[in-house]
Amino acid sequence: MSPSTAKLTDTPWDTDLAAYLQDLSAVQDKTLEVLVRKRQMLVDADTEGLAALGEEEARLVEDLQACLDRREDLLGRARREGLRAESLRSLATRLPSRESNDLSYQVRLASHRSRLLQHHSLTNWVLVQKTLIHLSQLLEIIATGGRLQPTYSKDDPIRASGALVDREV
Predict the structure, then answer these.
(1) What is the pTM of this model?
(2) Chain-wide mean pLDDT for the chain?
(3) Which residues of 9-28 are buried (b: 16+ CB within 10 A; e: fewer)?
């Protein structure tokens, strides 16, 4: 038995890592559910729902930060015990084979969910950006009175009246 294997059997790595991955999975699932709801609220222009979602998002950020802290603690403990574990994936592979296979699969699932969360976050970001561009264009139409000319010009004096209310001819 190698020294690193002996240390693994002295520490409940499989239990600690499995508990962490289970908690992470729960937080990831909640985050995914919130991102899906948020996207629908963005599409529906549900500003009240979006405002109410802020508190839930703040709690999820705290939960994700707690997961990150736990991850760092697990890896730090592994380093202190002399294990070369740069990631949870590498830590899982150092466990005895049955636990290693189960936990490696859970690590892959967590990694897959992380990519899915990134995809949903990016989708929501793009949706917000498209909305902002649309609103900006609407404001420009309102500000210019629908004219194709630039708002400011050396040749044409700026009109003081609003084109939508009392356009001067």
Answers:
(1) 0.72
(2) 83
(3) eeeebbebbbebbeebeebb
